[in-house]
Specification:
Belongs to the type-B carboxylesterase/lipase family. By secondary structure, the chain is an alpha/beta fold. The protein has helices spanning about 5-25, 165-170, 180-195, 215-225, 230, 250-260, 270-275, 280-285, 330-340, 350-360, 360-370, 380-410, 445-450, 470-485, 525-550, and strands at about 30, 35-40, 40, 50-55, 80-85, 90, 105, 110-115, 125-130, 155-160, 170, 180, 205-215, 235-240, 245-250, 305, 325-330, 415-420, 505-510, 515-520, 555, 560-565.
């Protein structure tokens, strides 16, 4: 072959490769009203799935838009295109809880879309929209566990960021009228974006499942009960979040007033301007580390019933779409283990102190009778497991039952599950390895299964692989969630439709047997009778907690520095409690 011929061949191959790359890029682009979005392929074995990451759905909530409702992103992309191949920064994280090396920013209102690479506008695929947890203080759609590649082979998967901490929830009364609930408004804005644009990715905006876990599950349940729910989604799944009571406007305004005083803005002639001039670091320093939710105390910054965005408590009105709620059988173990310096040596004194501090002496004896330590004598730490059982029922299982009961009145479909399996590859990265074996089916333990994450899991060495039976369990839960998005009801892999919860309180137990059975919640009869009483007692006990010095409570000084009140007898380490990203 002559040199000129060889050069011609090389030139032809080069041009052909450019053409192939161009064609490949074209297959990974979608056009919306703002311009053309370019994505990238997921890694093998999901190379047939396209990822479009970091798509703006609202204007950056900075400057005068800080502490305002989100405004739709209507701008044309720069040069008419958007390179959507990397995640956007996460929303600013608050407190001392997050150890994740994520880039943070106030400019964070972006979403991610995963879709089959060959999907077209005519595909009309069901859409699954994820809301992360994190206590309303931390969390991100870019968490590796929430990678949509694995569950977008026959559906569209979407996740979004929403504002957190005081940036997401700060509420102030007249004349400032900071309405709060900005985190919920962000999710609603993302859902509106999905309604307007998801067809470009191959999705059907009439079959949209909204699902979330913990705080994300709370938000999902709230949205299911809003008047506009039908216009934004067609079904909802609340994982470990349904039925949780929200704060009142009065509580949140009081918290907000204390916060602006800590920031040094309460006496300013322009309070709003003073607040918007503060840096995120200053805001973080003035933000109290909140108590874990199992203390029955209102979180400092959180969603609240404002009479407008959230008209009423979510359990006061039925969902407007088919609804599923479920919990893990040992939700509270994660919190109990994380809240004691040595959880395996928790004593009956610690248990009684916990009950008295949390619920008041009058109720403590009744709760102790329902959950005697002797019930847990077969475990390695009976008193710790007794505390965990109280947390599980009071904060998760029984609120979920209230939500399910309310959902029945809509007659649109009500479904329940109980996650009863301890993963062989625990995800909880902040728990010491020596305590992993005591977690059981605890809070967050279903998440890897929901996202089909069956390999390369972090504990113990980043290469953990779920067993064959666990992979089958993951397939079952992915199938059920997929059917909920497509049909409005869940099915098993054999095509059998789940029984409605109205049929004797039956749901699916996700364990080795995967059976339909009555999910026993009879203990919730007790918790339902004392729900209002315990909330009032716990709020009253807040003063007692801070004066008796029994537990760590993070408060804020007038200079904005965090102040801790340290336990001398109980061993709680609550204010420094590392809240998991998935809470």
């Amino acid at each position: 072959m002559s040199r000129s011929t060889y050069a011609h061949v090389l030139q032809t191959l080069f041009l052909l490769s450019i053409f192939i790359i161009a064609i490949s890029a074209q297959t990974l682009s979608v056009t919306v009203s703002n311009g053309t979005i370019f994505g990238s392929y997921c890694s093998s074995p999901f190379a047939n799935v396209a990822a479009y990451l970091g798509i703006p759905f609202a204007q950056p909530p900075v400057g005068n838009l800080r502490w305002n409702a989100p405004i739709s992103y209507n701008s044309t992309y720069s040069n008419g295109t958007l390179n959507a191949t990397t995640f956007s920064p996460s929303c600013y994280q608050f407190g001392s809880f997050s150890t994740e090396p994520l880039p943070y920013s106030e400019d964070c209102l972006y979403l991610n879309v995963w879709a089959p690479a060959n999907a077209t506008k005519n595909s009309l695929l069901p859409v699954k929209v994820w809301i992360y947890g994190g206590g309303g203080y931390i969390g991100s759609s870019s968490d590796p566990l929430y990678n949509g590649c694995t569950i977008a082979t026959n559906a569209i998967v979407v996740s979004m960021n929403y504002r957190l901490g005081p940036l997401g929830w700060l509420t102030l009364g007249a004349p400032l009228n900071f309405i709060g609930n900005y985190g919920v408004l962000d999710v609603l804005m993302a859902l509106q974006w999905i309604q307007e644009n998801i067809a470009s990715f191959g999705g059907n905006n009439k079959t949209v499942l909204l699902f979330g876990q913990s705080t994300g599950g709370i938000i999902a349940h709230v949205i299911s009960t809003l008047p506009q729910a039908n216009d934004l989604c067609s079904s909802v799944i609340s994982e470990s979040g349904a039925g949780r009571p929200l704060a009142t406007s009065e509580q949140q305004i009081a918290n907000g007033n204390a916060f602006i005083e800590a920031l040094g803005c309460s006496n300013s002639s322009d309070v709003a301007g003073c607040l918007r001039m503060k840096s995120t670091d200053q805001i973080n320093q003035a933000t109290p580390n909140y108590l874990p939710m199992f203390l029955y105390l209102p979180i400092q910054f959180y969603a609240h019933v404002d009479g407008n965005i959230i008209p009423v408590q979510p359990i006061a009105t039925s969902p407007k779409v088919p609804f599923m709620a479920g919990t893990c059988s040992m939700e509270g173990v994660l919190f109990a283990v994380s809240s004691f310096s040595n959880p395996l040596t928790v004593t009956s004194v610690d248990y009684n102190n916990y009950l008295n501090i949390t619920f008041g002496a009058a109720l403590a004896s009744s709760i102790s009778a329902l959950y005697p330590i002797s019930m847990f004598n077969s475990t390695v730490a009976p008193a710790m497991y007794a505390i965990a059982a109280v947390i599980t029922d009071a904060e998760y299982a029984c609120p979920a039952r209230r939500a399910l009961k309310t959902s029945l009145t809509s007659q649109l479909g009500t479904y329940a599950y109980l996650w009863n399996h301890m993963p062989s590859c625990p995800w909880e990265s902040s728990i010491p390895s020596g305590l992993l074996s005591v977690l059981g089916a605890t809070h967050t333990s279903e998440l890897a299964f929901v996202f089909g994450a069956t390999s390369n899991l972090p504990r113990p060495n980043g290469t953990c692989v779920l067993s064959t039976s666990e992979q089958m369990l993951s397939t079952e839960i992915v199938t059920a969630w997929q059917s909920m998005s497509k049909n409005g009801y869940p099915t098993l892999t054999n095509g059998s439709k789940w029984l409605d919860w109205s049929q004797g309180g039956q749901g699916v137990r996700f364990d080795g047997n995967l059976t339909f059975s009555i999910i026993n919640m009879t203990q919730c009869d007790f918790w339902d009778t004392i729900q209002t009483v315990t909330t009032t007692a716990a709020t009253t006990n807040n003063t007692t907690l801070m004066t008796t010095n029994l537990i760590i409570i993070a408060t804020t000084s007038t200079t904005g520095a965090a102040t801790s009140y340290v336990s001398s007898t109980v061993g709680f380490v609550l204010a420094t409690f590392i809240v998991l990203l998935h809470m």
